[in-house]
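Let's study today's protein:

:::
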Amino acid sequence: NLTPRLPFNIAAKNWRPGPHKASALARLFESITRRYLQGHEEGEGGLTAVELARNEAERAKEAIGADLRKGMNVLASVGSVAPFVGLLGTVVGIIGAFQGIASKGSGGLGAVSAGIAEALIETAFGLMVAIPAVLLFNYLTARVARLELNLARSAGELLDDMENQDGRSADISEVREKQAA
């Protein structure tokens, strides 16, 4: 079994954990090249090394995507719930204003001002939490989508190179066999 000597094969065999460990692209490339080399060494179940690497690429992209989206549901929940907390504060403040009216027997400014101020403060607080949370969620969602697209494109290029190299290696192997005969 002829294992092609490609730069990524050499890099994969000499892979050392390091600062690149945090890189999504490095993790993806590591899993693809590791599986590609294992496929050449083990020759599993009729699948080519490139097919095994493609399957691994899909699994790795899903796992990396899940890691990238970790915690996003909390941010989405904060953005969704905070306005309701503000609304609850508004309701409580307005109830306080009506209680002020009831206790004083009139609707003067002194009777309602404390309750209305409380309502406005709570509403503002809810919005001050919700707006940045929603903006950050949208920004991070777009960024994750861009990163996933770039990962898919890069993985595709690597897999295409592997496939091309395997084809050239098979051609070289056939030429060597013919020369030996």
